[in-house]
Specification:
- The structure is a single chain.
- The protein has two domains: 11-153, Aldehyde oxidase/xanthine dehydrogenase, molybdopterin binding domain (Aldehyde Oxidoreductase, domain 4, 2-Layer Sandwich); 177-327, 2-Layer Sandwich (Aldehyde Oxidoreductase, domain 4), CATH 3.30.365.10.
- Helix 1 (37-49) runs parallel beside helix 2 (77-104) and helix 4 packs across helix 5 (283-298).
- Helices cover 31% and strands 22% of the residues.
- The radius of gyration is 26 Å and the shape is elongated.
- It contains seven helices and twelve strands.
- It has helices at residues 37-49, 77-104, 130-140, 210-229, 283-298, 309-318, 323-327, and strands spanning 11-18, 24-28, 56-60, 111-114, 117-120, 123-129, 147-153, 177-186, 193-203, 235-236, 239-240, 258-264.
- The chain is an alpha+beta fold.
- Strand 2 (24-28), helix 1 and strand 3 (56-60) form a beta-alpha-beta unit.
- The two termini are 47 Å apart.
Length: 328
């Protein structure tokens, strides 16, 4: 699965403003809709800046206050926006160290930043807190605070533009990989398919927040099961006949099978701290796993989605076994 894509003008920007207490306010346009983006982006900023997570305040999704953001889609939140956030934090940290170097009369390469304190390597008594450095910076800059800026465009150096017709081109900087196993039960009388268990493992690079990653993987499974077994747009004569969630049924908690999920740790050199996508990569694999499990259980191959009872019964009847035809 893609980690962002050049197929759209997929780009993100971030701004990080340092505060008097050494904390920071992060401005990012990505929308938090349950995927944990605010936590993950704050973690990236805190790690790069060298401050506790609690010292990062985030403003997100407000287009009046935040810089450019092309949207939370194509699994680009942590990867594309995350890179912009890290660049913004790097920029702010660079300015912080340059100011500290002037105040401490030291080479910036001889400084180290830790626990909101900048000190000279090998001379820890020569030190300044982030707050002291920021106060001096504001004074010398006529009131201007330290503001870091970051911008990232997915595949900025793509020489081969992606093409569906030729199946060539570079679609993304990093691909996620996943593997799924599904266990199902098929009722040959009603045609109903019941998913008993799904096992899925996902290579997401370095998991920035394992709990959020696990939730994303399980969300992929739920989304995939809806598309595999239930969801269908009833489109006839140019009109949608099921425009509400009463008739376009999504999976609920009761429909969720037992899940076993895991992460394969790797290091993605293009991603922030080695991370890559996890938001959608497990979806397509679950669909195929369920379809293969239905074939293994009932001996019939369903080649279109959703796998409805009617399709299963029709396939069983065409194969000359099972279902109501056998009972009659």
């Amino acid at each position: 699965m893609f980690s962002g894509s050049p197929y759209y003008p997929f780009a993100s920007a971030a701004v990080l403003k340092l505060a008097d207490d050494g904390g920071a306010t992060l401005f990012a346009g990505t929308v938090e809709m349950g995927q944990g983006s605010e936590t993950t982006l704050s973690q990236i900023a805190a790690e790069e800046l060298g401050v506790p997570l609690s010292d990062i305040r985030i403003v997100s999704g407000d287009t009046e206050l935040t810089p450019i953001e092309f949207g939370s889609f194509l699994s680009g939140g942590a990867f594309v926006t995350g890179k912009a956030v890290r660049l913004a934090a790097e920029d702010a940290r660079r300015q912080l160290l340059e100011m500290a170097a002037r105040l401490l009369e030291a080479d910036v390469r001889d400084l180290e930043a830790r626990d909101k304190v900048v000190s000279v390597k090998g001379a820890s008594h020569r030190r300044l807190s982030y707050g002291e450095i920021i106060a001096a910076s504001v004074k010398q800059a006529n009131g201007d605070p330290i503001i870091g800026k970051g911008y990232h465009k997915s595949v900025p150096d793509a020489g081969l533009h992606p093409s569906l017709s030729t199946a060539k081109g570079r679609w993304t900087e990093a691909y996620g990989f996943a593997s799924q196993l599904a266990e199902v039960e098929v009722d040959t009388w009603t045609g109903r398919v019941r998913v008993l268990r799904v096992v899925t493992y996902h290579d997401c690079g370095f998991p920035l927040n394992p709990q959020i990653v696990e939730g994303q993987i399980e969300g992929c499974v739920s989304m995939a099961l809806g598309q595999t077994l239930q969801e269908r747009v009833d489109l006839r004569e140019g009109q949608v006949f099921n425009p509400d969630f009463l008739n376009y049924r999504l999976p609920i908690t009761h429909d969720t099978p037992a899940m076993v999920s895991g992460m394969i740790h790797s290091n993605e050199p293009h991603g922030p701290f080695g991370a890559k996508e996890v938001g959608e990569g497990a979806v397509s694999g679950v669909m195929a796993a369920v379809a293969n499990a239905v074939y293994d259980a009932a001996g019939v191959r369903i080649t279109s989605l959703p796998i409805t009872p009617a399709k299963v019964l029709a396939a069983l009847a065409a194969a000359g076994r099972g279902g109501r035809q056998e009972e009659e």
